Amino acid sequence: MDRGYGYHAELIQRHIELVPGYPGIRDALPELDLGEETLRAILGAAAEFAESRLVPINRAGDLQGCRFEAGRVLTPDCYKNAWEELTSAGWNSVDQPANFGGQGLPLFVNTACRELFDRACMAIGMLTGPTRAGTQVLLQFADPQVQDEWLPQLVAGKWSLTICISEADAGSDVGRIHSQAVQNSEGRWRVTGEKMWTSFGDHDLVERIGHLLLARSPGAPPGTAGLSLFLVPNKVKNSSGEWVVNGVIPRRIEEKLGLHGSPTCAMGFEGAEAYLLGRQHRGLSQMFVMIQSMRLMVATEGVGMSFGAEQAALSYAAERKQGGDPSRPPVAINDHADIQRQLLAMAGRVEVLRGMLYELAVRIDLERHGVAADERHARVTQWLLPIAKASCAEAAFEIPSAAIQVLGGAGYTREWPCEQWLRDARMMSIAEGSTGIQALDLLHRRLWRDDGETLAAFIDTARKELQGVSADLAAPALLVIDRLKRVAQQLLGWRERSRDAETGAVAFLQLAFLAVTGWIAVRLASRAGNDRIGRRLAAAGRYWLSDIDGRAALLERDALAGSAKLDQFHQILNG
Fold first, then answer.
1. Is the pLDDT confidence value at 565 over 90?
2. Which residue windows are transmembrane per the record (predicted)?
3. Looking at the domain 4-152, which fold is it?
C-alpha cells in the first residue's frame, strides 16, 4: 500500500546508496557530510514539505489555474505563500553555489528532493527548474558583474529565469529562429522578436524575470551557427533608479490540457535591452548547458509522477473489494492475478527508471567534482541522458494511464490524483526535445558521430558490473546488451541510408533503454537487501528481467526494418 512521502524518501535513498559512484562523491566532499544520516535528514524534511505544503496547492492550483489580466499573468492564489516558504527554506537552491547563497550540495541531492516535489506539485517545478538550470548558464558564460547582480537574487528566489527558444515555425528546428539582436553605438544589445511555449514567462511570484533567449545578429551566418545567447530582463532601471518595463511583453497564456498552475506564455520582445552571454554566434552550444539540465529535470519529473500513480493504484487495489467466491465476502482486487500483473509492471518500470536516474545524477556529480574526469565516464553519461529523458517522460503518461485502469471508473474522476498526473505529464515527451528528437540524438550524436565509442563505453561499464553477479541473474541483461550491439553495428553501416536508420531510431532508443534498465534491474535484484525496501526493489528488478529479452527481440527487428514500410504513406498522400 501507499506508505506516503516518507516511504518515497526511503526508496530514493536506497537507490542512491546502490549507485557504485555514490561513495566516491561522498568521500570527495567530506565537508558536506553526505553520509546516510545526513541524506536521511534532508530527504525526510523534503518529503514532509512536499506532503504538507505542495500536495494541497497542487489540486487547488489545477482547479483555479492561471489568469491573464491587464497584460500580466497571475498565478493561483495559493501559490504565493507556498513559494515564499519554499524559497525561505532553501528548497530552490539545494545545489546552487554557496558563494552566491546556495547550499552547494551535489546534483543528486537536488534530484532526490525534486522527485519528491514533482510528485507533489509539478507545476511549481516548472518555475524552479528553468531558474536552477539557467544559473548554470550564467555561471559559465555571464560577465562577473551580471553574475553578481543576478545570481544572489535567483538563489534567494526573488528573481527567476526562463528558457526562451521556440518561435512559430522554429521549435526544435532552432536554426530557423528569426529574433534579432542589434548592438548600438554604445555597445548595448537590444532584442526584437516573438517567442512561444515559455513556462512562467510572466508571473507574480518574483520581482524580476530574466529570459535566456537565442537571437540572430545582423550579418550572422544562417542556421544554428548564427545564433547568440542573451539574458533579457523583463525590467530595467531608468536614469532615476526606478524599475521600468524593458520591452518584454507577455502576449497571452495558452489554454492547455494540463499543468494549469504553470503559465505557458507567448512573449514579445520589442527592442528589449539584453546582455550578450559568452561568445557571439555560440549561443546554441552555450544554451545546451541549460537544455541538458532541463532534460534531467524532465526525467526526474517523470519518475516522481510515475511513482505517485503506481502508489495510488497499489493503495486502491488493497482496499477495493470485488470478486472471489460468491458465497463469501468479496476479496481485495489485488488478490486477482491480472491486477497483480498490472501492479508489478508499474512497480518494475518505476524502480528501474529511478535506478537509471540516480546512476545518471551521481555520474554528473562525479564529473563536476573531478572524481571521474576520464573520457569514457563522460561518454556513458552522454549515452544515458537522451535515454533517461525520453523513457521517463513516456512513463509519466503511461503509468498514470495504467493506474487509472486499475482504479476503473474511480481513476477517471478527480477524487483520485491519477487523472491530473496523466494530464500534467502529457507535455513531458514533447518538451525539451520530443521522444523522436531524443532518438535522433542517440543515433546521430551518440552513435554515428564517434563511430560507436560512446556505446562501447556504456557496454563495457555495464558488463563490468554484471560480471560480479550470478550468471543466471545477469543472463537476460547480457542478452539485451548483445542485441543492442548487433543493431548498432548494422546502423553504423547505414550512414548513407539515413532514412532507413531514422525510421528505426525510436526502436533503437527503446532497445537502448532496455539495455540500460536490464543493467539496473540486475543491480536491484542482487544488491537491494532483504528489508521492506530491499524486497520491493528486488521484486521489481526480477519482474523487469522476466521478459526483457522478448521485448528486446521485437525492438531489434523494428530498429532494422528500414524505410520500405513507410512507402505506403506516400501512396496515401498521393491518393
1. no
2. 505-526
3. Butyryl-Coa Dehydrogenase, subunit A; domain 1 (1.10.540)
